[in-house]
UniProtKB/TrEMBL annotation:
Source organism (scientific name): Vitis vinifera (Grape)
Limits of the GFO/IDH/MocA-like oxidoreductase domain: 6-106
Name of the protein in question: Putative oxidoreductase
Entry superkingdom: Eukaryota
Signal sequence annotation: none
Entry's family note: Belongs to the Gfo/Idh/MocA family.
Length: 200
């Protein structure tokens, strides 16, 4: 099971004037903006396998122009995997992703924009269980911090520049990883939009 959430409380100027809330500029609204990251995190956890079905969650909100400002969905795979996500321009800043399996749990609380530019933290629980009297946990999740000398934005530019340079200097073929990931994310996003419009 994977749960993903990316929300932020937009001010009135954003909700009236930002490109992301204008039907003729970005008709996907919150889904095409922060929902993209939620779906991407879920697909990463599912090794980019596409879900079999999508079900819209209740509570979808549209602005006066008909653009999504808050929504969520459940994704279901053939083998029984399930994921849910919520995204909103109308809730406190949150960027959580949790992956839960039979033997462990993985959590990140800043999966899109890290709390700090030079590090990111995550927790991992392995075979977690209660203590004998069920008054606490026998095995606590472990906390991990990964540090970097460059912020993630600079690392993305470095990756992109390296891919372009490899094509220009070495005659390499374009890397297929990123277009494939983007296409799969967009396919799921389109399926979520269709489910939201159907109210399913």
């Amino acid at each position: 099971m994977v749960q993903s959430c990316f929300t932020f409380l937009a001010d009135s100027d954003f909700l009236e004037n930002d490109i992301r809330v204008k039907p003729d500029l970005d008709a996907l609204g919150v889904l095409g903006d922060v929902g993209w990251y939620c779906i991407g995190a879920i697909l990463f956890a599912a090794d980019y396998e596409l879900p079999k079905s999508v079900i819209a969650l209740p509570g979808t909100v549209f602005n006066k122009a008909g653009v999504l400002t808050s929504c969520g969905a459940s994704l279901i795979w053939e083998d029984g995997k399930v994921a849910t996500f919520n995204c909103s321009f109308e809730a406190n800043l949150t960027m959580n992703v949790t992956a839960i399996g039979t033997k462990g749990t993985f959590q990140v609380h800043d999966f899109v924009i890290p709390f700090k530019e030079d590090s990111v933290a995550f927790s991992a629980g392995i075979e977690s269980w209660f203590n004998e009297l069920v008054t606490g946990w026998r095995t606590m999740p472990s906390e991990h911090v990964v540090t970097t000398n460059l912020p993630q934005d600079a690392l993305m530019v470095r990756e992109f520049s390296g891919l372009v340079a490899d094509i220009k200097r070495n005659g390499s073929k374009p890397e297929q990883k990123w277009p494939t990931i983007s296409r799969k994310t967009q396919l799921v996003l389109d399926a979520v939009k269709a489910a939201l419009e159907r109210g399913l």
